[in-house]
Every structure is written in structure tokens, then in C-alpha cells.
Amino acid sequence: MSGRLISFEGLDGVGKTTIVRALVKSLEDEGQKVTLVEEFLTEFLDGYLHGLLERDPYLRLAAEGQDTTLAQTLLLAAAHAFKYETIIKSAMTSGGLVLVDRFTDSLIAYQVPLLVESGLSKDAAIMWVDNCVSLLPQPSLTIYLIDDRARMRARRRARGDDADRESELFLSRVEQIYSYRLNSHRHRMVEYHLAGNLQEDITNLALMLRRDDFST
User: Fold this and answer.
1) Quick one: 141 exposed, middle or buried, by C-beta within 10 A (0-12, 13-18, 19+)?
2) Which of 59, 102, 104, 163: CA 20 to 30 A from 49?
């Protein structure tokens, strides 16, 4: 495969989708070949999951009190596999950049805390989710976006997400898993602290993508 797979990660409310879409437009304006893979596709499984998540951000698949975390994780892993098989694989074969708005790192970061709550150890949960997506390619570069917490909370409130203590606690656990991933995957994962100015951030991120060496 001749293309480069680059994923963007970050906590809910970091502004990731806005950043990625603007970056793709900037790169295309420069004449680069870029394929954007949105976090949620409208086709088939991913669109179905998006509908479920809009109704219930925690994707409870059964009656209250019934733990469906394993099934939920497998559904989300299937959505990533669907993206790979229908978009990413052919885009990488044809060359250019393939920019993904969240990929398998987000599955691990968001599902591991839920699996731990359901009774698995953190190490066992990470290993299990890793195995679920082991046949999918790892990105050559994963950029983890970080922003001011107050701005992130404001964005989540603006789109109607829960801003209670429970949801904030859950996101702190997600952040811990992302930190674990960053430490254990330094060969491909880097942090980028947003400047708060979209054009400045797009310029900086475009420079990162042009580098042969992704180390910070």
C-alpha cells in the first residue's frame, strides 16, 4: 500500500472534527491527494451505530441493568473494520494521505473504562480490544489533540452532551487510557496542543504531516 494512514484522536469536545475537515480542505487546496474518513459514516453499520449513539451516548443495547459492553465493543470494532474495507484500504492503495477522524485508538480509550466497570482488569480489557482490531492497520501517525478543558466543556454543552460529574469522570478515565497509549506507542502517536486559532492550528498540523520524522 502506497498511501499514508493518519488518524486524529482526542476527547469529546476537543474540536477534532472541525480541525480535520479544515485540514483536509487546506491540503486539497495545495493540490495534495487526500481522503477523509469521517468518524461516523452514513452507510450501513456505522450509520446505524450513529443513530444509536445519538439516542444514547453510552450505547446501552438492552434493558437497564443488563451489561452489554462486550457486544457494544464488538459492534464498534465492526464499524472500524467496515471503514477499512470500504474506504481506507482502496484509498491507501491509490496513494496520498488518508485522514481518519478517530480510529482504533479511540475504541480502546473509550471502551476499556466500560469493560473495567463490567469486571475486567485494565490489562485484560486493553488486550481484548486490541485483539478485536488486530487485523486492521495501525496508522503511520496518530495525532492526539489537546485543548483547554473549559473550551472543551463549553463545546460539549453547546451540542447537548451531558456535562455532569459522572460524564466528566468517565472522560478522565478515557484520558488515562489515551495517556497509556501515547506512552506505549511513541513510534506513531504524538500530542498536539491546540493554539485556539483554527488557521494557526491547520498550518502547524500541515507542517507535521510534511515531516518525514514524526517525532516531537
Assistant:
1) buried
2) 163
C-alpha cell at 62: 438492552
- Give CA separation, 161 vs 154, 155, 209, in Å: 10, 9, 31
CA distance 86 to 80: 10
Contact between residue 174 and residue 109 where contact means Cβ atoms under 8 Å apart: yes
User: Structural domain boundaries of the chain?
Assistant: 4-210
Residue 62 makes CB contacts below 8 A (sequence gap 6+) with 68
Is pTM, for the whole model, over 0.90?
A: no
Phi, then psi, of 98 in degrees rounded to 5: -120, 110
The candidate with the shortest Cα–Cα distance to 47, out of 12, 71, 83, 21, is 83
Q: Could you list the pLDDT tens digit for every one of the 216 residues in the chain? A: 578 999 999 999 999 999 999 999 999 999 999 999 988 765 555 556 656 655 555 555 555 656 788 888 988 898 899 889 989 999 999 989 999 999 999 999 999 999 999 999 999 999 999 999 999 999 999 999 999 988 998 888 888 776 666 688 899 999 999 999 999 999 999 999 999 899 999 999 999 998 754 443
Candidates 192, 196, 191; CA nearest to 154 is 196
